[in-house]
Amino acid sequence: MESEEVNAHYICISCDRQFIDVYDPPKGYSQELKQECLKMYLNGMGFRAIERVKGVHHTTIIHWVKKLGEQLPDVPKEDVVPAVGELDELETFVGSKKTKSGCGQQ
To answer: Is residue 100 part of a domain?
Structure first.
């Protein structure tokens, strides 16, 4: 049977503060897990939903999104027309609906 090495905890006699002999800081998350969480966010999943699925705290995911957002280029000026545009298909469908009220009745 293997024994795990456990850090000893101590209490200072003069000030009653607790401390350990060796501090092992958290290792952090892998790049793969970060990428998966960011893809989930970009595909419309909420921060808390990602937290439930991946086990990463939602504020950590928010931090990753903000950090990634800071690396993006600035948006073009309003007077500059972009060469490529995108139109959402839902907007097109709603705009071309034949019935104006529920169940096809007016």
So the answer is: no
Q: Which of 51, 45, 49 is nearest to 29 (CA)?
A: 51
What sections of the chain are H helices per DSSP? 31-42, 47-54, 58-70, 89-95
**Domain assignment of residue 14, yes or no:** no
Cα gap 85→81, rounded to integer Å:
9
Angle between helices 58-70 and 47-54 (to 10 degrees): 120
The reply to whether 59 falls in a domain is: yes
Residue 56 belongs to what domain range? 28-72
Rg (CA), the chain: 26
Find, among 36, 28, 30, 38, the residue nearest to 71 by Cα. Answer: 38
Q: Write the single-letter amino acid at 62.
A: I
pLDDT at 8: 80
Q: Is the pLDDT of residue 3 over 50?
A: no
pTM of the model: 0.51
Residues 6+ apart with CB under 8 A from 43: none
